[in-house]
Amino acid sequence: SDLTIAFEALSRVRMHISKVSMLLPVITKGHVGIMAALEAEKGLSEHFHAKLADIQAPQPLLLPQPTPTKGRKSKSNAIKATPPPPPAPVETNKLKIGMGLIAHPLSSAHVDRRVMLVVDVNPAVTTAVVLDMRYTFPLSSGNPMFPEVLWGHNVYSGGYYHVDFTMPPTANVAVLHTLEPTSAESKEHALFCKPVIEGETKPDGTKIPTLYYSKTEALPYLATLCPGQLRSAVRVYWGVMKWPTPQIQKEVE
Asked: How far apart are CA 16 and CA 140, in angstroms?
């Protein structure tokens, strides 16, 4: 009867509430720390900075003119000063770490008009991270390749150069962060964290943090620095962009 169905439904609801109540401490684990970090981020308008360097063309070197002497002219005084060589061209478009790139609409469908940050440059390969392309799901407890402290963080698509459905150390994960070492002389920080944009202290005392780039092997170390930090201090990217350095250098020029 309808009454029996109603009692059965009520019993199922009570059993469900009882199970959820038992699991509630596990579900809300770390909830206080996460909410405190989110609350601390309110009102922050800027985290990173970038500025253009003042490039000054080298001034031509003026050689001293010979001083004429009275009386008989010497051969040395008759020789004119040779003009200085032309100044070397200033390389304003040379690829370097911390440079921002904007993809041309015809470059590829993956990075159409996307903003990329160069994080590593060597004579063979240049590596960059796409900054503004989000994945559709956050990190969850179902992905054991990430430390628990990073669960719940949004994942960004850093580029098409990655390996899907794999675990470290073969997975290509990039992390941009502003986490500072616990001690001034940290060998681990120097090993796992490469500075991309150096920080500075403004005249009013405001401190701009340094932006670091880390790879998959740095995840366990970063997990020791994350507790108590703002969630915006760490951004996780799945994959990166890579090109032959001579090729991308010609495209930039």
From this structure: 23
- Determine contact, residues 160/237, Cβ cutoff 8 Å: no
Contacts of 134 (CB under 8 A, 6+ apart): 154, 155, 156, 157
Upper half-sphere CA count for residue 221 (Cβ side, 13 Å): 19
Burial 39-60 (b: 16+ CB within 10 A, else e): eeeeeeeeeeeeeeeeeeeeee
Q: Distance (Å, rounded) from C-alpha 155 to C-alpha 160?
A: 14
Query: For the stretch 121-134, what's the b/e string if a residue is b when 16 or more beta carbons lie within 10 angstroms of its beta carbon?
Result: beeeebbbbbeebe
Q: Is the pTM of this model over 0.90?
A: no
* DSSP reduced 3-state for 96: coil
Task: Extract the tokens encoding 27.
Answer: 């579900």
DSSP annotation of 6: H
Tokens at 193, concatenated:
């964290």
- Higher pLDDT pick, 34 / 146: 146
Predicted confidence (pLDDT) per residue in 175-214, tens digit: 999 998 887 667 889 899 999 998 888 888 888 899 999 9
Q: CB of 179 within 8 A of CB of 130?
A: no
Q: Which two tokens stand for residue 57?
A: 């063309």
Q: Is the pLDDT reported for residue 56 higher than 90?
A: no
Tokens of 14: 């009570």
Structure tokens at 42: 């309110």
Query: Any idea which residue has 């051969």 for tokens?
Result: 75
Q: SS3 of 228, please?
A: coil
